[in-house]
Amino acid sequence: MINWGIIGASTIAKQWMINAINHCTDSQVVALLSQSPERGKAFQEQFQIQRIYSNLHEFLAHPDLDVVYIGTTNEYHHPQTLASASAQKHVLCEKPLALSLSDAKQMVEACSTAGVVMGTNHHLRNAVTHRKLRQLIQENAIGEPLAVRVFHAVMLPPHLQTWRINNPNAGAGVILDITVHDTDTLRFILDDEVESVIATSSTQGLGQHGIDDSVMGVMKFHRGTLAQFHDSFVIGHAGTGLEIHGTEASLFATDVMTQRPIGSIMLRRNDHIEPIELPPPYNLYERAVHSFNQAVLGNGQPAATDHDGLQSLAVALAVKQSADTHQMIRVQYA
Ligand code: NDP
């Protein structure tokens, strides 16, 4: 049994991650660290967690702890990963890995030096839809991918209208929250890296102190694919989607930029439209935990690695810089 500890009594831990860890046959949650005794107790009761801590070093000393899942607000990912690595714990860290590329690089190096596995919790690449899109591109089903359009504009639920819209120190804003996911998903599907970006952002009703709640932009990939993206916290009725237009055909994926295992894909060639058959859907986070557990056991890599987290952060930071400076930005990787 692989024993996981959770840092942060967060929404993502409560809604997805603790259940995902406990549902995998080879892992269980044994400890939780929270700054709030009330939240800690509520989590303990709801999920039957052995032990709740309020001190990071005591938490890391929990007997037989193997893996730490870091689901705190973004500014804590860096110090908590460094502490976990120096305690010889494997780390699955939430996105964005950190607020700067140098911090993220330090996290990756610390885990590598400690000889522990580090992964990034980019869930979307676990979806059957995105995996099928990647497969179709690799099988040349649409020829050369020329253009992509990503629709990831949603309404931020009221219970999440907190640090994301008002706390710059926590890495607020839609770019570090959503554009990182678009980046990882497109890198995964296209098997290519972003070369440059141009973007513009706006505050359209939720962002405070000038924090962006909406962004539109274009990523240019090394092989020439142009990807247009719209990410937002204030669009309530659009649904999400992803289109890939190739030299021979186009793919239209609907309702796929989401935490839930839903969505469909159509392939269009001239006027002929055919639905793409998908394997049975599964929980995206359970797949992430399963692959992380396997990596801990020495079998392969996490679904999204530490390197994937570095790449998506580099692109998101470039998008932010482009929106702030009104310039096209060449992505600086670590
Ligand atoms: P939350 O705002 O729910 O929680 C963040 C932290 O705030 C918690 O760790 C908790 O710390 C504290 N907290 C929780 N509830 C409250 C409250 N009511 N009042 C004050 N503090 C509270 O964050 P999310 O779960 O939305 O996001 C956490 C991380 O996960 C972020 O890095 C985010 O980017 C990422 N994320 C990833 C997703 C994915 O699909 N990969 C999806 C959603 C988020 P403590 O217990 O120590 O007090």
Q: Give the strand content.
A: 15-25%
Low-confidence stretches: none
Helix percentage range: 25-40%
Write the H/E string, N to C: EHEHEHEHEHEHEHHEEEEEEEHHE
Look at the structure and give the mean pLDDT.
98
Distance between the termini: 35 Å
Sheet bearing the most strands, described?
9 strands, mixed
* Secondary-structure content class: alpha/beta
- Placed side by side, the strands forming the largest sheet appear as 14-13-12-11-7-10-9-8-15
List how many beta strands DSSP finds.
15
Alpha carbon gyration radius: 20 Å
Q: What coarse outline follows from CA principal-axis ratios? A: globular
User: How many helix segments?
Assistant: 10
The hetero molecules present are:
NADPH dihydro-nicotinamide-adenine-dinucleotide phosphate
Can you lay out the helices and strands and say which pair or pack?
Elements: E1 2-7, H1 11-23, E2 27-33, H2 37-47, E3 51-53, H3 56-60, E4 67-70, H4 77-86, E5 90-93, H5 101-114, E6 118-120, H6 128-138, E7 145-153, H7 163-166, H8 174-190, E8 194-202, E9 214-221, E10 226-232, E11 241-246, E12 250-254, E13 264-269, E14 272-275, H9 284-296, H10 306-325, E15 329-330
Parallel strand pairs: 1-2, 1-4, 2-3, 4-5, 5-6, 7-10
Antiparallel strand pairs: 7-11, 8-9, 8-15, 9-10, 11-12, 12-13, 13-14
Helix pairs in contact: 1-9, 4-5, 5-10, 6-8, 8-10
Bound molecules: NADPH dihydro-nicotinamide-adenine-dinucleotide phosphate.
NADPH dihydro-nicotinamide-adenine-dinucleotide phosphate (NDP) is lined by residues 8-12, 34-36, 39, 71-74, 94-95, 121, 123, 160, 162-163, 177, 259.
